[in-house]
Amino acid sequence: MNTFIIIGLVILFLVGSINLVVPTKQTRMLSDLRLRARKKGFQISSLTSKQKFVTKNVKFVCYSLKNISNLKNAHYVIKESSLTLYDPIKLKFDENFEEIENKISNLPGSILEIIFNDSYISFLWNENLGIDELEKIEKQLKNFSI
Question: How far apart are CA 25 and CA 18, in angstroms?
Answer without folding.
Answer: 15
